[in-house]
Amino acid sequence: MKHEQTRYRPVMLSHGVQCTGSEYLINRPGYLNSDGTYLEWDENNNLINGSETITNTLGFTLASRGYDVWLINFRGTYYSLNHTRLDVSDPEFWRFSMDEMIQIDLPSMIDYILYQTNHSSLSYIGHSQANVLMLKPGQLVFQNMKNVRSVLSTICSNRMMRWICYHVYDLAVGYQTSDINVDRFPVHIYNIPSGASNDNAIHHMQTWKKGHVSHYDYGVEKNLKFYNQSEPPIYDVTKINSTNIAFFQSSFDRISSIEGNIQLKQELTKPLLEDYVIDRKDFDHMSFVWSKKTGI
Questions:
Q1: Which residues are CB-neighbours of 64 under 8 A, at least 6 positions away?
Q2: Residue partners of 192: CB distance under 8 A and separation at least 6
Q3: pLDDT tens profile 132-155
Q4: Which CATH architecture has domain 9-290?
Q5: Is 211 left (phi over 0), alpha (psi -120 to 50) or beta?
Q6: How far is CA 288 from CA 9, 16, 71, 194, in A?
Q7: Closest Cα partner for 202 from 146, 255, 141?
Q8: Is the pTM of this model over 0.70?
Q9: Where on the tree of life does the source sit, at the highest rank (predicted)?
Q10: Distances in Å between the alpha carbon of 5 and those of 68, 105, 107, 197, 237?
């Protein structure tokens, strides 16, 4: 049975590695009224109306502006541990990398949203890994992620430990305390890290080492078996034919470099709708979703 088309255009918010869809909801405390009005407290504890002013928490801001917001959670994250036949204790559950997300998860999610909303297209906003996954239309790292998240949040709530936690978190994910609301740090660290597989981590390291995004490298013998060639095939971005793609990047993002983005842009055959570079030293990787000035 075909669904009736929803009134508002669907927009998918896609998260980075070790994150969940919650990264788009936790920048500032606030709430969404039943009438769709979003109220948010700013850094000075003033309550602002998100329907009149652009606020800093993207998920709620878009919803208050009339978008049909869909938050997704890729396999292996805290909110996506169900499986029709495998348990999380089964090593087979964790045998996935970006390949499975690109080839199976993301297309399935998009198809589901389009079916539920009866729209023919949607808008996609990605952060970090989520943008890599759009290049084509093991065992758990932390086996008990709920306990790990709880312990980290508790430790880093201690005033004596907090600055140590800040610096470790900054090195890991690009977390500039001068640009991010540090009063939200316990919330941030409770939500990230949120789960991934070893194979996915290895795939990211392979991508960094090779300088391009290719399929998972199993080694020559298994590559020949799976791909019929000794090296894994590269994801061919020249086949991307959309002219509605916008890049937002930071000159000081230590996780996703400007050089890598330049290389990708050179390989694309279609012009970008927008190519915006933020040239601020305090705007790092997580600033895209948690900056004090996200809504400006």
A1: 32, 36, 37, 38, 50, 51, 55
A2: 18, 19, 20, 23, 173
A3: 777 654 222 333 344 444 455 556
A4: 3-Layer(aba) Sandwich (3.40)
A5: left
A6: 23, 11, 16, 18
A7: 141
A8: yes
A9: Eukaryota
A10: 12, 23, 20, 37, 32
Edge-first strand order for the sheet with 68-71 is 68-71, 10-14, 123-126
Q: Are 40 and 55 in contact (CB under 8 A)?
A: yes
What's the rounded Cα separation, in Å, for the pair 178 and 184? Answer: 13
**CB atoms < 10 A from the CB of 100, how many?**
19
User: What average pLDDT does this structure show over 217-244?
Assistant: 89
For residue 82, what are the CA distances in angstroms to 30, 75, 158, 198? 30, 8, 34, 18
Instruction: Please state, in angstroms and rounded to a whole number, the distance separating the CA atoms of residues 145 and 163.
Output: 23
Helix (H, G, I), strand (E, B) or coil at 169: helix
Distances in whole angstroms, Cα of residue 190 to Cα of each of 77, 151, 254: 13, 9, 22
Sequence spans of domains, the chain: 9-290
If you average pLDDT over residues 264-279, what whole number do you get?
85
